[in-house]
Amino acid sequence: MKVDLRKPEFVMKLDRLGSFHQSKLSFLRSFIREFKDWDFQTKEFNLDNEGYGHAIYTVQNRHKQYSLICFSNYLDESDRSDRVIATKWDASFVLFDGAPSKKDIERLQSNVPLQEQGRVSQKELCLSRANKSVRIFEHVVKHLSEGKQPDTKLLYDVGYLYRTTAVYGSGKFGLADRIKIQNRDEIKGPFRLEMMLVYLARQFTFDIVNHVAHHRCPEKAITLHDDIARNLGIGNSTGLGMAPFIVNHPALLNQWIVAKESALKAIRSIALINEIEKKSFQNYLTFIQENIKYWKTDSEYQIKKNKQLLKDLENFQKYFNNLSLGEYFWNSVYQWVEKNTQAECCEFIVSLMMEVYPEIVEPLSYEMSINEEEYFDIDTSRPIYEISQLIENQYTWLLNINFDKKDNIFNFWYYSKNKQEPRLSDRFSEEGADLELPLAIARDIQNLYQELKLMDLKDDLGSYLLKSQRYRHILRRVLICEKLPYSEIQDNTISKSVIPVDMLRLKLSFFGATRFDPRSDRWVRITMYQGAPLMREIHQSNDSWSYKKIA
Amino acid sequence: MQSLYEIETTVLRSSRTQGLSWGVSEEVGKAIRVLEQSNLAGLESFKRIIDLGFDNLNKLLEVNQINTNNLCPIHFGLFFLDQSHKKKFHQTFHFENLVEPLISLPFLIKAAKKNLIYFHLDSKELVLNISPGSLFSVDKNQIPQVISKFSLKLTTQREMQFSPKTWDDLYKLSLETFVDESEEKRISGAGAGLTDND
Fold this sequence. Notes:
By secondary structure, chain A is an alpha+beta fold.
């Protein structure tokens, strides 16, 4: 039996992309698989009794070393904000390429805590910051200093001690350009170094509570139990800055989606499976259903999705219990799920199916990067009629959208001057639409199509570009999509009904985030590395930690 | 020092503020990035264009256009990047002057590689050959801010860069890796059948 990849017009809809879950392909999991045999160490821990100062963690093998430098500073309550628009933080982090000298640390000490307002250099790879979850931090320190372990119910309701609000890499604020590191074997997967920073920062959050608790009461204090620490991740608050990334990097998006779709196709194509494989899937399903109860959110949108997920999983469990092993078992499972459950559950089951087959899925994680430069140039010798046909075939979904209707052009994306981050606003009531970012892809492809139709279709693209350069950037996308069909979100990203949080969710699921907690339709809190091995036990990781029962 | 990412995005956005389309701005960002990565003063050159103002520059829209004074290096480069696959452009053209020719170079280099063509730029201030090959070197101190009364020759023909004697000497030397063939070897050594047409 031949199983096809799911079609782009099915997968690339925002409501489906916004229902993706973490999987074996997620970057934080592939980071641990890649680095588990490296040596992780705490190199320096120079914090005062209150926990202010700096610490250095190193990750090295015989050939290479990376160092995370953590700065912990006093933060007045009035300055503490979860939003990316904050200007001061409890902790700031920088990932250094190699071993920093004393002079490097001094330089970084005066710049890293300033984040966007500071400058870093080509020696540094990633930059980030985090705030304490004040409630949890104080609770943990107090209990540990009194010789007691903290209340795990309270802890797991939140899921972390600190929340990061941004992780920057690839040349921002003077950081090293991607070109410097792209050929390193250990960095073949996307966002590897960002994942390293977050992993080490999580370790710092455990070390700092132990340190502060000890200095509060050296006689009584105990350290946070490993089992409790392991079940804490590191939080993250993410706003709209992340959303345009997946629109601005179509070739990269294609690689991520193709990896997932290829894994699913390969699993659905397995002709015969045994009872052990079925049982293994059931085990993962059982554990994760237990953990879903820790997914807390106040968002009506996400509450509805989570409720539907639980309901769908209940139905699925009944179906699965009665399912006997037949030919193309997983294909039958998938078809049932697609037909009988919502996207949230369907994509959840897809992620679970991947867990059973590491030999199929894990190699695909090395194919998730791409040299985007190779797709930049436009072949201007192509006849216009070919491109018109291409649009008709690839972008059928947008050709009938009426962009004269207010609701279909309601929003515009722009770049915030204050934060150098993308934002979304109402075009009809707010200023700035004249500085709109080129993220109105559906509208502009339709415009390009209409312009091409006015040309002599036998002419080539060079002739069109002589007449107009207005949609050059869009032409580039159309040609990318021809080669990489999963490169384009098939929804109108400026419509009134767009849910930007779906775009964040898509990216965050590939990062490996869990516990999606949208705080509005524009920003979301998530947890990373919850259940992951601690630094000193990373070499024992068997990649099943995402499905360990919390509590 | 600014990263290449910062240079590219800053140039892209600056270009956009000057009225260039997003697509053209993306091209300019990449071009300046390539120049800076090659230790050529692309950013300074770009800044001089901004100071001069795009309104004071002419876009090259056709090779026979009457006014080729103060040509914009971005549109000059884009023109050949987008059009040089056409045979009708494989000839020599004459222009009045080009402002900041450095900025045109990344476009011409890309066009040469993409369409397997050779550009020969000839002016009294600057002579340049750009080929589809990977090696290209230019002395940054010799690139003027303007070139005047210049020609640009486009050809698909590679020119011979060595003397017949050099070739003969090397070819003879290469023959020393061959084995002298006996009649028997000549018949059986090719590995095919005994007749050429079986």
